[in-house]
Amino acid sequence: MTSVTSVRLPALRAPPRPEMANIAEKRLKIEMQRLLASPLPYASAKPREENFRIWDAVVLGPVSTPYEGGRFHFKMEFPIEYPLKAPKVTFKTKTYHCNINPIGNVCLNILKIRDEGGSWSSGMGVASILLSMHQLLGEANPDDPLVASVALQYKSDKDEHDRIATLWTRRYAK
């Protein structure tokens, strides 16, 4: 029989406060101004007119990779608790990658908060995410995949993996 003292209950979290939404929106406006003042050469992002917490972004495939020449579109959905919580990133461009699944979900440590074993911190932001997406295309992490078959191919037959990734880039990442 389990004693009462050995049972761990999940921590209760208070619902987001309305002022959190204001903090998130103010922070996102500052980040948008920074991106406009200093555009990144490999990526761009902007909020949607109807919802400032949803951004559309494009990252260019890194040079000397199977993704070179591609334009990879994705969506960032910022929670009310941003910047304390990371946004949800969903690729819209079909991408042959072990860390991006067929419905566009992304497996990347930066998109998880530290409590969940990730590396997200409130000092990170839109520019950090854009850089991370660009780097992810250049350096897959087959040891933490979303698509196991692609990770296995990446490890066992990198040439074939790169050939398929290049074909998908030419076909879908326009």
Model description:
This protein has helices at 18-37, 126-138, 148-156, 158-172; strands at residues 43-47, 54-60, 71-77, 88-91. It is of the alpha+beta class and 174 residues long. It has one domain: Ubiquitin Conjugating Enzyme (Roll), CATH 3.10.110. Strands 1-2-3-4 form a four-stranded antiparallel beta sheet, with helices on one face. A hairpin with a 6-residue loop joins β1 and β2. α3 (148-156) crosses α4. It is globular, with a radius of gyration of 18 Å. It starts with 17 loop residues before the first helix and ends with a helix. The model is unreliable at 1-7 (pLDDT under 50).
Task: Write a concise keyword list for the protein shown above.
globular, alpha+beta, four-stranded antiparallel sheet, 13% strand, Ubiquitin Conjugating Enzyme, 174 residues, single chain
Q: Can you tell me the residue ranges where pLDDT is under 50 for at least 5 consecutive residues?
A: 1-7
Distance between the termini: 60 Å
**CATH architectural designation:** Roll
How many domains would you count in the coordinates?
Answer: 1
